[in-house]
Structure formats: structure tokens, C-alpha cells
Amino acid sequence: MLLYEFEGKKLFKSCGIAVPKSQLLESESQRVKVKPPFVAKAQVLSGNRAKGGGIVFDQTNLFGKQINGEKVERVLVEEAIDYEKEYYLSFSYSTETRGLVMTFGEGGTGVEGKGAKTYAVDFDVLPKELVDTAHKLWEVFTKYDCELAEINPLVIDKAGKAWALDSKVILDDDADFRREEKFPQRNLFGRPPTDRELEARKIDEGDHRGTAGSVYWDLNGDIAVIAAGGGGSIVNMDALLAYGGRPANYTEHSGNPPREKLKKLTKIVLSKPGLKGCWFVGGTANFTDIYETLMGFVDGLKEIKPKYPIVIRRGGPRDKEAFEALAEIGKKEDFNFHIYGRETPMTSTAKIMKELAYGNTNN
Amino acid sequence: MAILITEKTRVLVQGITGKEGSRATLQMKNYATRVLAGVTPGKGGQEVHGVPVYNTIKEALENHPGINASFVAVPNFAAYGAIKEAIENKIPLINILTEHIPIQDSAKAIAMAREANVRIVGPSSIGIISPGIGKVGSIGGDDPRGVYSKGNVGVISKSGGMASEISWILTKNGIGQSTVIGIGGDILVGSGFADLMADFEKDEQTKALVLFGEIGGTYEEEAAEFIKSGKFTKKVVSFVSGLFAETLPQGTKLGHAGAIIYGEKGSYKSKINSLKEAGVIIAKTPDEIPGLLEI
């Protein structure tokens, strides 16, 4: 999870990193208590905030502005710091070294392109004036299970004191279970999480038998997608886009989730208005029970009773049994089923779905 | 001859009394893989599908000195301790099924394994199968025979489901596999493409290789470098996914932890360009792979 600047700075402060005196404004009418000169910064998740007009001085007229597509709802006001030098410093993981790295360089915004260098974690390569802050940032990084802890710029004032003027922190979601600090859901798509996104994430809570809906995003299209597999789901989304299909959502299920999880997920995915089709798609599973997962899908369908075309492509354990049952249920419930097994290339059913949903045109 | 899993493989299952461990144990035995022992702290003395359970790896090794591979199927919070125990006991191959291991724990385990010259495959790995010889992990489920077949194409995949789908496509077209490996879709993995390509290069059974990659990280680029430097000389066909992910805001989480991009690094374009430069043939869909292999 990517944190907002003010959230990251809370973690910085808790480990003793110096941050300027500040106030978080949550509405335009709030009185500013920080005395000028001050800097006001839009609290958005996208980078390049300064270029997007998200940083102003001695005024706070940022509310409601769009910064790189994100609406500004909070503004952090901070005392301006007079400084002499600025640096970039971060800790993160590198897939190249398969381990921890420290990135350090001189200069501030955009420094990644300005010669910041990556090292193994070694405090000795740093200028003396940064060592203490680096140790504290290291504490933030390890204590809170971060994927990234970055200060940019990290500045030195006239008295030689180091200040973190900005923060970028990405928390490792897989370590949520052992981190006490909790943070609310992000407005990742420039909007608050939708009810469907929040509901879908609840499916796996307290039930570790496979996953279904832990990752769910509402998108702008009209073809509902219930995809199987962390990898296969992306392959199929790529195919749907390539054929001109417009996905209504992204979600995946994997690791042999029980029937009831698929029922819940199906109901959530198909609760969206204006759908033109539904695509239940997956490869040839290793151990996910195709009968159970497809029957869970059908349980959901029976409640929603959609009339639009439903394209199913799946393979794996008990697939024959599943398809026999589907054929029967389809007739009985009058579902507009188009069923394909492992003999049919997975990605080719994207084209079939698109044509059934939109007609045989290029829309 | 295949790689990693051979006739000599003798397996230990860590977390054997859990649902995943127990299920995989039965599957491995049914596929004629020699599973000698299991470990679950506090459950020593039990049996799971006829396999004896011990409290510690040390005890298991004392009774079964032939063990040379460990399959880790413990919950994520216990994974680091389990992997550490396997490394300390010098088990040369550790295959980790466990998903959602905190990256800090994975990093520590990978560093420790390197130091000890132990190979880790995973985390989040579906397993390793050498068709007709044996398997470690959940790969192939209860009956791998319909999907995986013995032959001379190696498969390395970031996705377990796609390892299966690709093997099925190959099998359907009469192309068998030497060894199929799910390396996992995490940010940090014990074995990347290049690490395993070194083994496939030496393996006489393997004539060509299929790589399933996806956006995020630098493992595909590393594979390309490995080929360019002349260390891998066999034919490689690759399929890379993730264009969809690039239509979403940066940092959007998808099915695999590693399939995430911040900035240019790990992009689809970077991967495709590096692989093409290295002479790798790119398949536009998984179903094109058999035709491109031309064997």
C-alpha cells in the first residue's frame, strides 16, 4: 500500500526523523495555524506533484484541484525550512540483487534520473550529516515492513540538521498481519473504493481456503470478468483488450476456493448495471476443482438471472463433470451459455465474448 | 535426465499435517515421488498418508538421511522459520508453496540460502515436475498425466496456472516436457529464469525452452542478458503478459505481488525488447508456442 505524504511522515516521526512542524487540512474552511512562510502540499498518491501544480507557498488554494487525475481532498501545510543542501535517500528491494538496496544521491525532486546510485545497505558510503537519519529511515523500513521508504528531498539546514521534506512509503501488504498501524483504503483510481471493491475484499477475510475477490477493481467497461489465476487472469485481460472488449472489472480467484466464495464473487461482479456479457475464464488448472468453482458461479447466476451472453472457458480437475452439469443447468434456467473446454484456446474466447456482447462489429 | 527433480529426489514435507501439505503429499506419492518424511512442530509421531511426521528437520534427517529436497507448505507467518530450518540443515533444494510471505522474510531467506549454497524455488511456487519421473508441490494436482507429458522442452513460468496451461498446449500438440517449474510471481524469488536456464543448458534431455513472463521486476531482462552473454544456447520461445496492467494507475495490485510497476522498470516494452534483442521468439498468444518451437 502506497502511503500519502502525511501518513509516511507519521512513521518517520515515530522513529525520530525530523520533519517540519505541520498541519493537515481536511477542508478549505479549516483555519491555518502554521505561520508563514509555509508550504502547502496536495495529498495525492501520484508522483510529479510539483509539476502538476500540487505545491503552493503561503496559500492553501489546492482543494478540489485535479493533480494527475486525482482530486485533492487533503492538504498538508508545513513550516518552510531554509536549507543549504538536498539529497535523495531510500531503502527498497531489488529484483536484480534479490535483496535489500540503499539508493542515495544529491539533489531533490526527480533525482532518480539525476544520478542517484544504488548500493548494498552500507551506512559508510553516506555523507556524515546523513548517517543518523539513514539509521532512522532504516528503522522505519524494517519495523513497519516497507517495500520502499524514501526521503526526497532530505535536506540539511544551516545548522547542519537533517529534515525530511517529503515521504514516499510503500507498505508490504503481506506483512499487514504483524503491523499494528492500520491505514484506510486508498483512492487509487482517483476515486474512493467502490462498494463492490470493498465487498469483494471481504470474501477472503477469515477464510484461507483459496482466494476469490481479494483483488477486485471496478473498471469502466461492460463485460463482467471472473478470471482464474494470478497469471492467467492477466493473460486473459490482455486478450480481451486486444480484441476490443471493454472489461467491467478485474478480479481473480485461485488456489481452489470453495463453492460459496465463487457464489459471493459472482453476485458482486454481476451486480453492476449495464453489463453486456459475462466471461468466466481460466486456463487448465493444476488443482482447483473446476466442478466446485463453476457450481459456485452458477449459484450466483441463479440469483442474478442475467439474460446477456455468458462465455465459459475452463479446464482442470473435474472439468467434464462441470460441463455436463452446466449444459443441463443452462437449459433449465435458460442461461445464454457458451461453454468451452481446454480444447479451445483460452485467449480465443476473448474474441467470442466480445462478438457476443457487442455483435459482430468493431465497436 | 531432466533438472531438479530426478530419480534420486527424496522429499521432506514441511507443514505436512496442514491441508496443503497433506494434499500435496498424497499427490506426490501417487506420481511415484519418494516422500520420506514430514515435519510439523508438536505433531511428531503421527503419520500422513503413510509418511512419518517429526517435530524437527534434524530428527527427520536422522531417520531419513536420504532427504535431498524440501517442500514448504506452512502458513505465511511461519514460513521464514521453516525455510531457515531447512537451510540450516543443508537440504539442497527448497520448494516453497506458501503465498503472501512478507518480502522482508523472503529477502532474509534468499540471502541465507545463497550463503549456504542452497537452492530455493518460490515462494508462491506451484511446484516442479519432471514428467514421468516425479514432482514436488501441487503442480499437476491429483493426476498430472493428462496435462504434463515427458519430452524435451523445458518450461519456466511465473504463474502456476500458466505452467499448466502451457504444458497442456504443448502436450496437445505432441510436445513433451523435460521439467516444468513454477518460479512464483512474487517480487523476490529464490530462482529466476536465468538461474534455472543454467541447469537447462546442461541438461541433455532439454532441446528448447518456454518462458512465461509478466510485467514487473527484472527477471525477464536478466534471462535476456544470460542468453546474450552466450550462457544459454538452446532455442527459447517466450510469452509475456501484462499490457492490461499498464492501462491501470501505477502501483495497482493484481493477482501476483511481483506484477506491479512503478515507473519504466519492469514494463512490458522493456521485457519484450530485451528478449527480442537476445534472439528469443515472442509468442503473441500461448497457443502459438508449439508452432514457434518447431520441434
Explain how this protein is built:
- The complex is a heterodimer of chains A (363) and B (295).
- Chain A has helices at residues 5-14, 128-143, 195-202, 230-242, 259-269, 290-304, 319-333, 348-358; strands at 22-25, 38-42, 55-57, 66-67, 70-71, 75-79, 83-94, 99-106, 117-119, 146-157, 162-164, 168-171, 211-218, 223-228, 249-254, 277-284, 310-315, 337-340.
- With 363 residues, chain A is of the alpha+beta class.
- Chain A folds into three domains: 1-18 and 83-178, 2-Layer Sandwich (D-amino Acid Aminotransferase, Chain A, domain 1); 21-80, Dna Ligase, domain 1 (2-Layer Sandwich), CATH 3.30.1490; 195-358, Succinyl-CoA synthetase domains (Rossmann fold, 3-Layer(aba) Sandwich).
- In chain A, strands 7, 8, 9, 10, 11 and 12 form a six-stranded antiparallel β-sheet that branches. In chain A, strands 13-15-14-16-17-18 form a six-stranded mixed β-sheet, with helices on both faces.
- In chain A, strand 7 and strand 8 form a beta hairpin.
- Chain A starts with a helix and ends in a 5-residue tail after the last helix.
- With 295 residues, chain B is an alpha/beta fold.
- Chain B has two domains: 1-126, Rossmann fold; 147-295, Rossmann fold (3-Layer(aba) Sandwich), CATH 3.40.50.261.
- Chain B has helices at 19-30, 57-63, 76-88, 103-115, 160-172, 193-202, 219-228, 268-277, 289-293, and strands at residues 10-14, 34-39, 47-48, 51-54, 69-72, 93-96, 119-121, 127-130, 134-137, 150-157, 177-182, 208-214, 235-241, 281-282.
- The longest helix of chain B is centred in the first third of the chain and has 13 residues, at 76-88.
- The model of chain B has no long low-confidence stretch (mean pLDDT 95).
- Classes of the chains: A alpha+beta (363), B alpha/beta (295).
- Chains A and B meet through helix 4, strand 15 and strand 16 of A and helix 1, helix 4 and helix 5 of B.
